[in-house]
Write a structure and sequence with these properties.
This is Nudix hydrolase domain-containing protein. GO terms for molecular function: pyrophosphatase activity. There is one protein chain. By secondary structure, this protein is mostly beta strands. The protein has two domains: about 1-55, no CATH class; about 65-210, Nucleoside Triphosphate Pyrophosphohydrolase (Alpha-Beta Complex), CATH 3.90.79. About 15% of the residues lie in helices and about 40% in strands. The protein contains three helices and twelve strands; from the N terminus they run βββββββαββββαβα. The N and C termini lie far apart (about 50 Å).
């Protein structure tokens, strides 16, 4: 993945459907969790550019995606709630409201990772996995970081879910919230954006629910 030092171009195999000629692909920085890369590209009209990107170092080879996001629906006292988490995100410099989420470990399926991460981050036990999405990408202009969305149903009246206890890592600080699904968009709209931001997957879900009623 290195470029030639004598000024010549090192060609890169062209991926399917790629309209560009790629060359001089290299790792710019390699860290514990991520690496940054850059690659030169040439358009069909001869214009040249450089694309820089970020990639995780942690994805097991057989994993279906880097991680999972969990749409956890709690049925409790005849009401439907969505489980959300709030945590400080250092890259954003703010608190962030999100779906529970996490990386897929070696040997796990997306559904197994979702059940585990839900229990660890929120303390809630899964009743049933409703569906699993196809592989999707979070910010494809910047990174190949990928996830599967997993929808989980939770029995909020079950004894194990009356007082859920988180199983957090020593470096995690996560607040768990239950918001009625019918009030999710209004809850998000009333947040103070100067101190808290909303993860895009959650916002898209809330907007979808809102538009479905229009």
């Amino acid at each position: 993945m290195a470029s030639l030092s004598n000024g010549q171009e090192a060609s890169v195999d062209k991926p399917a459907n790629c309209p560009f000629q790629l060359f001089n692909q290299e790792v710019v920085w390699n860290g514990k969790w991520i690496q940054t890369r850059q690659v030169g590209f040439r358009t069909q009209t001869g214009q040249q550019g450089v694309w820089q990107s970020v990639h995780r170092n942690t994805k097991p080879a057989e994993a279906p995606a880097d991680g999972v996001s969990i749409i956890a629906r709690v049925r409790k006292q005849d009401k439907l709630f969505i489980v959300l988490v709030k945590q400080y995100r250092i890259p954003c410099g703010k608190l962030c409201l999100e779906f529970p989420a996490g990386l897929i470990d070696a040997g796990e399926t997306a559904q197994q990772a979702a059940i585990r991460e839900l229990k660890e981050e929120t303390g809630y036990a899964c009743k049933k996995v409703v569906m699993e999405s196809k592989l999707c990408f979070l910010d494809p202009g910047l990174t190949d970081d990928s996830q599967c969305l997993v929808v989980i149903d939770i029995d909020g009246d079950a004894p194990e879910n009356l007082n859920p206890i988180q199983l957090l890592d020593s470096t995690e600080s996560i607040e768990v919230l239950l918001v009625e699904q019918s009030k999710l968009m209004s809850y998000i709209s009333e947040l103070d954006s100067s101190s808290i931001v909303v993860e895009s997957t959650l916002l898209a879900y809330a907007m979808g629910i809102q538009f479905a009623t229009i």
